[in-house]
Amino acid sequence: MVSLAICTQMVSANETLTIDVANGATQTYTAQLGAGVDLVKTGTGKLIVSNDLNTAFNGTVTIKAGILEAQSGLLSNHRVFGSAAVNTITVEKGAQLITRVPGPKSQGDKQFPNNLVLAGDGPDGTGALRAYRYTGVSGSGSNCDALFGNVTLTDDAMVRIECRTGFANGTINFNGHHLSLYKGGNGTFMVYGGSVWNAGAAGAELIVTNEVIAKPLGHPVAGPATR
Q: How far apart are CA 35 and CA 111, in angstroms?
């Protein structure tokens, strides 16, 4: 295991990279994430991962506390957490993942093709996941990329949408939990074709705030109740 406050050099394969950021601090990780590396974010501060050339990365990302902001690149193949759809990003209860993408992108051009495991509403109640678009990037409207492959809830979770985005061509596994979608700014959550909404157990519910969904759910398979 490699435990670091901050790192600017590429970590070798078959390592777990643990980055601890103290409360109130913001640090930036600029090195490449190579194949076989697992990233663990600890501490209640904010970590920004800004290297978008992690094409070889095929490990896992676990956000145990605080905020991890993942900044995607301007080009379609510049993905901060790699291109492997088998990668999993886990946001534990009380932590937050911020995705920041260039936009506009097409539905099939995912800057975050990774699977997502989600719980809670973040460290300050603003969402376990917050999706943003870069400001000052050319393109019409507030379009940005579709996010993630399969999404799995391990507890009730909140997603705050600050741009036009959505989950595409994956399965959203509710496991009997509630998923709250909240609109912030120009946010719109798109329900793309190919998505399967799986309630998984009794009590699953999709809670929509501020008319964030752009079009009906259509015909989700075993979908949850919606309000």
A: 18
